[in-house]
Design goal:
It is built from 13 helices and 17 strands. The strands form four sheets. Strands 1, 2, 3, 4, 5, 15, 16 and 17 form an eight-stranded mixed beta sheet that branches. The protein binds zinc ion (ZN).
């Protein structure tokens, strides 16, 4: 049982683009952590056993949802340009040992809590080692500690030599092997299936090679069929136009990263009978590609090839974003936190990026990161807006994010499923923040 709360005198932002800010509202949160009532201050009777918190002048909105992140790292720059032999050694002798797995789990828990304290009440992990994300989700859901709502993918699904393989992925080279890998992940308790349809910037050896097609339509379709029949969504890593086509034809529910579109692709996004909802949503990750494509290699320490591929992927992804906006394709917000220069605590940077580069306004990006993300992830029945009956997943700010999106970088309180974090503490990485602040 939680404490029941009355949050008084709030300026309420519902999360829904079509609803206006409401002043002087009171939100009642019951012992089950659910939003029980939302009324104007003067016409609400507050039960005497409720803890009243006066939030005069403050702004309350739904907790942020990060639709694409990884818990295994924190956004400090790292380089993968070491030999495969060295990676194998590090994996066998360090990561995949009892000690290594314990360190990994602690680090993942730290990253999840850091994100939560920064206002991210729901996060979807899309590629982790050893089902550690499943363990953390279960510990949170069992009440072992107060944590975010976690939706977890476990290992990626890839092909031999494919993106994320062999360490971060289960490898399959036919529709039946791919089905088996879905079943393995399901047996371990995942909430969704993450697949790699194309390569990525990190594994491209030549300029123009990032986004090379790796899975076939038959493999993607088998994975989607296997996942969808038990109601699981399929998220696809894709970094090229042809990759997007294959993923959409196979019936995936979200395209992660994305690329420039043609008419067939636009049609398939909007009307995809093989996807669980009948359409496919796009989850770009602009901030993840931007620093390595725009910063000098003396800062990022990446090779000229990586920088050029990042630029190609970023430009194509941004074109895809603009086309998605023009054509009313559903767009969610994910950051790819864990990648170099993408931290778990600054989701506002990704939102700010859409405002600068795609002319979206504050209201639109706030809707995307709350209501729309919840819908895309299939959790809109419990979170994503401030509505009676939903979980009390809320963030409280001094400043109005409808006026300054950067208000989201300074969260005064966080509530997740009715558990109030009254003095959140966020561990920031100064070197990364300094670089990002210098980018624009
Ligand atoms: Zn990712």
């Amino acid at each position: 049982m939680n404490t029941a709360y009355a949050l008084k005198n709030v300026n309420l932002i519902h999360g829904d683009l079509n609803r206006n800010l409401q002043k002087n509202m009171t939100i009642l949160v019951n012992e089950q952590g659910l939003i029980q009532d939302i009324r104007r201050d003067h016409d609400l009777n507050i039960p005497s056993h409720y803890t009243t918190i006066d939030l005069s002048g403050k702004y309350v909105m739904p907790g942020l949802i990060n639709a694409h992140m990884h818990l295994f790292a924190d956004g400090k720059p790292f380089s993968l340009s070491v030999s495969e032999g060295l990676l194998q050694f590090a994996y066998d002798r360090i990561l995949n040992t009892k000690f290594g797995r314990n360190v990994l789990k602690k680090r993942m828990k730290h990253n999840a809590l850091n994100a939560l304290h920064a206002g991210v009440t729901t996060m979807r992990s899309v590629g982790e080692f050893f089902y550690t994300d499943v363990q953390l989700r279960d510990e949170i859901n069992n009440g072992d500690f107060v944590g975010p709502n976690l939706l977890v993918s476990g290992f990626l699904l890839s092909v031999t030599g494919g993106h994320g393989a062999p360490f971060l992925a289960l490898v399959g080279d036919s529709p039946w092997e791919a089905r088996k890998n879905v079943r393995i992940n399901v047996k371990h308790g995942v909430d969704l299936i993450k697949i790699c349809v194309t390569g990525g910037v990190t594994d491209a050896k030549m300029v123009g090679e990032a986004g090379r097609l790796q899975m076939t339509v038959e493999e993607v379709a088998a994975i989607c069929d296997e996942a969808h029949k038990i109601g699981l969504r399929v998220a696809a890593h894709v970094e090229s136009t042809e990759g997007v086509r294959v993923a959409l034809q196979g019936g995936v529910d979200t395209i992660e990263h994305g690329s420039e579109m043609d008419d067939e692709i636009i049609r398939l996004y909007k009307n995809n009978s093989n996807a669980l909802n009948g359409y496919t949503a796009l989850i770009p990750t602009l901030q993840a590609a931007y620093p390595s494509s725009s910063l000098d290699t003396s800062v990022t320490k990446v090779s000229a090839t990586v920088k050029e591929n990042s630029r190609l992927v970023y430009d194509s992804m941004l074109k895809g974003v603009k086309q998605a906006i023009e054509n009313d394709i559903t767009i969610g917000i994910g950051t790819d936190a864990a990648m170099p220069y993408v931290t778990h605590y600054d989701m506002w940077r990704e939102m700010d990026h859409y405002m600068r580069q795609a002319n979206l306004n504050n209201k639109q990006v706030i809707d995307m990161v709350t209501r729309t993300n919840a819908k895309i992830l299939g959790v809109d029945d419990v979170t994503g807006t401030v509505d009676i009956g939903k979980h009390a997943d809320l963030i409280i700010m001094e400043q109005n994010p409808l006026e300054h999106i950067e208000a989201l970088s300074d969260i005064s309180m966080v509530m997740v499923k009715g558990n109030l974090i009254q003095t959140p503490s966020v561990t920031r990485i100064q070197e990364v923040d300094d670089v990002l602040n210098s980018v624009w």
